[in-house]
């Protein structure tokens, strides 16, 4: 079976590697252009490009799929299927109609829940106990195509976006191989999504990381875990940005001096008061322009006053 593969970040790499290992023919890999990381620095290749070059696959990096030159180039290929994993672009109608079997996508949620750009992050932030991966047919909508196969996994209280992404990407790779075999053999029956059950996972903004101390410690800890890749959960300390990279809900009720957004020591640990007299136990932080440090090192340097205000 001849495939065109479209993907960009690390999440897509296990699927590409699995397709190659399973002896699918991949005459072309499409990914985003190399990214400039800063003035005076060399450009950085997407993880999918690096994986493709390691496997000696042809790589194509168009700025836009709608460009006529891109269309002319791709229509020279006659793939059986196009596989799309976290590519970052909407697939245009002409490209959807290009392959014999169709365009298939791996999406990191149990569709129709969490359609959109950040399903893993929002599933953690919103306190879901389970998630999974879905393979689906690509249509003109945003994650609205017919469902092919799904696999479910649990979300633990310690999962971050990184740990959950790693598990889901491996699961998605296996599921795509199963999907391709099933679609080629006619053993999978696509089923429409229920629009009434759809929820959305919009693209993250930097402002999504700002901590609202009127939330409970459980809610804030989920935001810390869900935004661990970007933008991070942050507040301010003495007027400067302060990122919280590792924090957990603490047992017991907050003492009187730890009102919402007030920080202090409880049993020698850095605690911050949250809604409902809950407390957040902070383990790792980062001041603006500094490296990540433990809460203990932060306390040693900051000389924190009891009940000092954050945010």
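^ structure tokens above, recovered residues below v
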């Amino acid at each position: 079976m001849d495939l065109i593969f479209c993907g960009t970040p690390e999440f897509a790499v296990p699927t590409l590697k699995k397709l190659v290992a399973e002896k699918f023919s991949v005459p072309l890999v499409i990914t985003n252009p190399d990214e400039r990381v800063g003035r005076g620095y060399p450009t950085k290749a997407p993880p999918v490009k690096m994986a493709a070059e390691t496997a000696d696959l042809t790589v194509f990096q168009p700025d836009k799929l709608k460009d006529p030159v891109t269309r002319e180039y791709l229509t020279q290929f006659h793939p059986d299927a196009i596989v799309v994993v976290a590519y970052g672009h909407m697939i245009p109608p002409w490209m959807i109609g290009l392959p014999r079997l169709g365009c298939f996508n791996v999406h990191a949620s149990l569709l129709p829940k969490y359609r959109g750009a950040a399903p893993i992050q929002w599933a953690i932030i919103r306190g879901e106990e389970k998630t999974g991966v879905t393979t689906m047919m690509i249509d003109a909508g945003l994650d609205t195509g017919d469902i092919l196969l799904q696999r479910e996994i649990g979300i633990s209280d310690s999962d971050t976006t990184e740990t959950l992404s790693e598990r889901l990407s491996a699961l998605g790779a296996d599921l795509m191989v199963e999907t391709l075999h099933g679609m080629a053999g006619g053993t999978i029956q696509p089923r429409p999504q229920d629009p009434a059950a759809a929820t959305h996972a919009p693209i993250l903004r930097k402002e999504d990381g700002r901590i609202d101390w009127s939330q409970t410690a459980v809610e804030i800890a989920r935001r810390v875990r869900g935004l661990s890749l970007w933008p991070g959960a942050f507040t301010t300390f003495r007027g400067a940005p302060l990122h919280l990279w590792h924090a957990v809900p603490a047992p017991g009720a907050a003492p009187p001096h730890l009102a919402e957004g007030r920080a202090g020591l409880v049993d020698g640990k850095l605690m911050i008061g949250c809604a409902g007299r809950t407390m957040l136990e902070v383990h790792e932080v980062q001041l603006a322009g500094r490296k990540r440090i433990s809460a203990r090192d932060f306390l040693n340097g900051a000389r924190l006053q009891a009940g000092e205000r954050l945010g």
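The helical segments are 13-21, 47-54, 68-74, 93-96, 119-125, 161-185, 217-226, 295-302.
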